[in-house]
Amino acid sequence: MSKQEQHWNETRNLLFITLAIWFVFSIGIFLFGAQMEASSFRPLGYPLSYYMTCQGSLGIFVILIFWFAGRQEKIDEKFGFAEREDD
Amino acid sequence: MIKGKFIDNLPRVYGIYTGGFLVFIIIMAICEQAGMSAKAIGIAFVAFTVSIYAIIGYLSRTLQLDAYYVAGRQVPTVFNGMATAADWMSGASFVAMAGGIYFKGYGYMALLVGWTGGYVLVASLLAPYLRKFGCYTVPDFIGTRYGGNVARLSAVLVLTVASFTYVTAQINATGTIASVALDIPFGIAVYVGLASILICSMLGGMRAVTWTQVAQYIVLIIAYLLPVFWISNKMGAGFFPHLMLADEVARIAELESQFGLGTIKNTAADLATVPKGLAGITKAHSSVNATPWAFISLAVCMMAGTASLPHVMMRYFTTPSVKTARRSVGWSLFFIFLLYSSAPMLATLSKLSLMDPNLTTGIIGKSISDVQALDWYQNWNQANLMFVSDFNGNGTLDLNEFFMGGKAVVLATPEIAGLPYVISGLVAAGGMAAAMSTADGLVLAIANALSHDLYYKIIDPKADTAKRLIVARVLLVIIGFAGATIAAMEIQGILGSVIWAFDFAMSGLFFPLVLGVWWKRANSQGAVAGMLVGLAVGTWYLVHVRTGGTPIWGVSQLTFGIHGALASLVSMVAVSLMTKAPDSATQKMVDEVRIPSGKAILGRQH
């Protein structure tokens, strides 16, 4: 397998992981809105369903993008496809 | 004070600007104490901020193509994040969102999840690859990746439909705020708003829009956060509202049952006396009140729409590199998060101020005549945003007898909570900044697509730089006027048209964009089918539901993008597989796009 194919494979795997986490917090947990509301786990005292819609999922997305960007940069560097300063 | 290149001095320039704005707020506060009228303060706020944007727009004028189309590709990560956040957060986010949450609760908050989750798709699926491509506009990518004028034209069509739906709503919002703050009729205010929008973008294109958007973000975030923190502290709810309002949320639930929410219903005859556009509280504040499908389908549409809307995507064409484009998406979402996470807090504080009889601001349970005598009630009643009526004739105001317009939650809460008027002036300036910045981005996205993709690439490929830039500016003005004319007709509410814009964009562009990078086999015929079929099916479904047709799969007029995008995906894959695979040059181009290093596909000036 060429270097470029390996790079793309790892990039694609990272995409799948990122999208899986994204799926859980944007779609998955909201299948269980009523259960979240009834849950005794109440972050900062808010009902869990309320908390996730107004802060929880949103904050996780912010962290997820920075994490994804960092990982992708590592993959690019590993295969020598990172940009040089003068590009 | 400022030496060297502008780009190197950005933190200092905007630091001074922010300090200057805070000083301006303090001066206004002093003027208010000295007896300046509320109206004069409102005018001062809007006039001061808009003239600053106009100065920035003038200073950023340019005669270069890459500066006009992509701000010279030198906008640093964090500043591009701020500009994107302003580009993104429209009049709807600023003025209407807290109101929507106030009235509809959990089901409405799907928009918060959708409008943030979409950025994960932007960062992982599209932005870095389109940045590597080196295109000026979104149709530029479609046209080059798939090849052929038909693909390019289809992309221009979808882009125009989606962005135009969106931009009329933003010009409408600009007009609404300008008419309230400057006290002029809406029909004129719309054109005042348009003039301010055009000043910011006409001379400098993307470069001017970038630097005004950063300035607008600073104004709008101060204008949103300051009242939220102030009210929370004044009420004793906690000095950091986002982390400390759990008791208040619980208290609202308690009051809701005490006041008989959901058990006492208004008769149709009573409701007929309520002015149009105003609503009472009919849904619980925090409990789950939507089916999982209703919530998720709305969130999915907003996420896919986010990834397909051209005015957001083209912001990532302005960063210096692929790496910075990726990081910049994270910063964009961070700056958006600051406002979005505050909207539910504002809705909570606003509702509690009105409902809690233990607070001096509470009006529910007070006598109707006392409420009608309140200064702020009279003001907002006159503005047609508030209404009370003693339906049951008991002399006191019950929860089901109080009605408010959605905009009032943001615009009137500072006054209701007893904050000085200077804050209301600030909020008006913030709303104006939010609506203007989004309108700027959208008008520019449409005008650039028409001038670059339609005029230069298809009609007159030999046009020189000067001619191209003149065409771009003329189109900008034409589109602005068309948008303002439609906005002045007030066909539709602000929020409704914004949501439609997302559905249109998702129907036509989501899969052609994503598969352009992630599926090498996708070809021109497939992409054209995907764009046109998606747009047609989406539009057909919207008309179908609007004209009383039975919804299919519980998809409403707000989520018609589900059917549009699905049709787009199916037709794109089917047609691609039935026709010839793209040639090896195209396949190689896709390979090139997938790695950050190396030359861009399209040259610096093209």
Order of helices and strands of chain B: HHHHHHHHHHHHHEHHHHHHEEHHHHHHH
- The domain tally of chain B reads 1
Which architecture name of chain B does CATH use? Answer: Up-down Bundle
Give a short account of the largest sheet of chain B.
3 strands, antiparallel
CATH class of chain B, anyone?
Mainly Alpha
Helix content of chain B: over 70%
Helices of chain B, by number, come to 26
CATH level-four homologous superfamily name of chain B: Sodium/glucose cotransporter
Uncertain segments of chain B are none
The greatest interface between two protein chains, and residues involved on each side, is: A-B, 47 and 55 residues
Q: Write down the Rg of chain A.
A: 18 Å
Beginning-to-end CA distance, first to last residue of chain B: 37 Å
Task: List unreliable stretches of 5+ residues of chain A.
Answer: none
Gross morphology of chain A is elongated
